[in-house]
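User: I'm writing a short methods note and want a consistent example. For Importin-13, I'll paste the sequence; you return only the structure tokens, no commentary, since I'll be parsing the reply automatically.
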Amino acid sequence: MASAFLPVLPQGDVDRAIQLIQQAYAPEQRLSSDDQRRLQQELFEIQRRPEAWGLVLPFLGHPDPNVQFFGAHTIQVKIARDWDAFPEDAATQLRDMLLELTGRAISSGQNKVILRKLFVAITSLAMKLHPSSPSRWPDWLRSTLSAFSTMGVPREHIMDFLAIVAEEVESADLLPPRKAQMKQSLAEAVPMVTQAIHECIATPVVQRSPHDLPSALKCLQAWMAILPANDLTPFVPSLLSLMIPTAESPSPEYDEQSFLPASDTVQELLTASALAEGAGTKTVTEPLLLWLDRYGSAIVQATVSSGFVDDISHSLCKLLVALGDHSAMYFAKNIASPVLVKPVPCPVPPPHAAPTGLAPRAELPQAAPAVHRAAGEALWNVDYGFDVGEEGEAGNEAEERERDMMPVAKAVYSELVSVLRRKVVWPPRSVLSGWARDQRDKFQAFRRDVGDTLINAYYVLRDDMLSFYVNDLLQRLSARQAQDGWEEIEATLHCVMAVQEAVPVEDSPHLRQIFGPDILGRLPKTGDERVRRTALHLIGKPPPSHHTRPPGSYASWFTTQPTQAPGSPTPSPLMNAITYVVSALPDPTLCLFAANALRDLCDANRTALAPHIGAFGELHAGLTGIPDTEKAKVLQSIASVIQALPPTEEIPPIEAIVSPVVAKLFEALQSAGQLPEEARAMAVQQLETLTGVARGLTRVTDSLLAQDESPEVQAALKEMNRAREDPRVVKLREAILSAIRGTVELWSTDASVCDALSDLFKSITALPSDVTLLSLPAGPLLELVCLAAQRQLTAVWLSLAQVLVIQLNPPSLLPTTFKSEPSAEASEVALNVLQVLLQTSLSVFAQPGAMASNPDIVQAFFGCIDAYVQHFMPVFYRLPPELFNALIQCAIGALSLQERYSLTSACTFLSSFVNRTATNDDFAAAKAALAQTHGFQIMRAVLFGFAGVAPRSAMPNLIELLSTMITRYPAESKQWMSEILFAEDFYPCRATPEAKTKFIKTVFGSRSLKRTREGAQQFTLVARGLEGSAFGYATVSM
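Assistant:
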């Protein structure tokens, strides 16, 4: 084999590379991770050398498969990454050598992983040589197949090669013209490819290799998006012929080696080809329906009879899902059309291929609801060809369509609702105990996904749907025997819960029945955890799940019901729900869900529950057996009810629930020396409880919707302020603040305490219109934040400082032309806090690598400082000059950070600061001084960022900062840019003097943000060597 054109690697290096591979990857070697990395790095260093082309032949000729793999891998990587360094006149010789090497590898029986690497290498080489003018490898695919045929390559490997070709070309990162040339070369090969696949499928089983058919069908799947519809259509009968049973008695038997890949291919045809999205109903849908009518039902019946979901039935269900998604409009038209049509079996599948109680299989539970939704939407979108009158009567078409459609839609959805109710039933415990964890998770996910389908059904059936569920519950409760399970009743409750977001918040006789004595009153109050948990979720929404959004709850529906007076003999639905929830609080397995439900109920029904405050006092007194974590939520619930009382009447109950919490917090502080861990945990719990109470006291109505100067708001504020001056409340707030101060002094460096304090600070401070009896002023809390930050600077304290600084100068809720100036007292507090935070933060950031290692702190720091820019701009120019200059230099240094969010926060601060300084006449002298002292350095950092210092994801923020500088300092910016770009010490990049000149002209041609963005983006691509690359232009951040 001619290989003189390849660069030569010393034999010693080749031997060392082989030794490294065998040491790193031999099965018998037991290396530490450090040794493995060391060997891999040394091997990588050899492979990246320009002469590493010389590794290919010795590697591929070596008997060790691991070494052979690296030979194939090396030539693939070299073609993809180092092509520019390869001699152009040797490309043809490399092509011939690569084809010969691949033929030898196939004939010698090398494994498919190695062959795949070689096939990818051939395709990569084609993408280098074919799309050029003139092409250096014209008709490359046909010539490659011809070469393989001459070498006697088996059909199986030819099919594998063709599949890889389609995949690689589709995913290739090429510029559009080159990509189009490659796709055209595939399009020209379509007749040859389809003929080869047809021949393979048509070959009798006894005459073909066992792997020929799977490879051919994989190839067809890979080419599916390339083949035009008229080339795909002939494959449908061929594929269905592979799915015919080999024997039909006594039960159908299928050849899995044919059925499964054929079914996968049909699914691909239905979802990702020119015949997808409802196309080809005559050529695809109807033949498939005939096949389903003949064979599908038998497969389902056999599965139900055996109780086992095998690979055939599993594949059939996936096929049904794909067909349902593809042909939803066809089914809707033929189900609902008034024209008489021959009935066809409806392939909308149930969620399980097996009867209820069998474990769900793979992705089917998740896929089936999507089919139901698609079918339901199609019922409304399909054109049924209803007759309409002349143009003057066209306005009646919608009414006529709805009249004709409604009975059909209701019939379809009624059946769907009934089926889905059965399908969400959990199996009995005896069956469920045999399910694996992942099977339970999949079934749980299916139950959640059913909700979207049921919501669609509700919009059609509305009250009829709730009536169905109510009647089902009443019948099952009436017929239930003591030994019966609750699974069926729980499933119906789950369905009622799933449609909550669609049910209007208005009086409903059906919901009154559900939350009345006939249903809720007959549900168990002990044992049977699942049905009780679902009932609690029905009342108050469950905790959020990482899988999907949680279903809603009916807590707000109770606001539509009349308020029940204390002592009334007939409990209202709201009090029924409260009673049911409270009964579950002592149960350890349900306490969390009961506490959440109680919190939601009380939060939404404050006014209705306020007359029952005495009962909540009794509840508070009986909380002894409830864990502290849930007790906090119960206290938040009680606080929500207290908030609905007049402020002066709030004082005694607030004292009653808060004083013990504060006392326990002081107890934790005092016991910290003896039992530090227990004391800290107790302190965190009490802080979380105070947070819950503070949140509960916050008004439900949005303060932004109220006007500060309205008589009602002013009267309420005066009443609240009078109540806040009550000595009992003043003493309580002082105790809370004292306890918080003690906690900060003792545990401010503990992460869990920091988080708890952060939540408390945010909930116990408020705007003036939202103030509560417990609201604390921002000033003393900022003092504590500074104390904590000085001990250990964290993002938590800086973020809190940002929130509290804003509250020092709260925004007006009335629209004004000018922003109100902060008071002198607030400005002094802000200045003192700013100095402490700057001294603390800048001393931390001054340590080598500190900013790069703590991006969260950097981001929070500049976010906090930006809040000062928005609310207390003058205090910056009251800082000591050295402290002010250190801040600006820190921000400039942050523009070179590699972490995006910390860099962008610095950009935002600098942009805001420059804008505020330049646009305020009071800062005219400061504007000039800022430009003279820091302007050049800011511009230098921005331009260095474009050239390669900053990550490309931060370009939009750097562009905004550049635009700000150009707008506020036009003459100076032009001079700075010229000096920086053409300086000898400019950041090393690929930008030529012409590119730099063009950049300056583009930016200063109009000084608009659009032109600045265009110029900066183009300069960035040029400077980083990405001009003309598909990656560069595809990843430009707009």
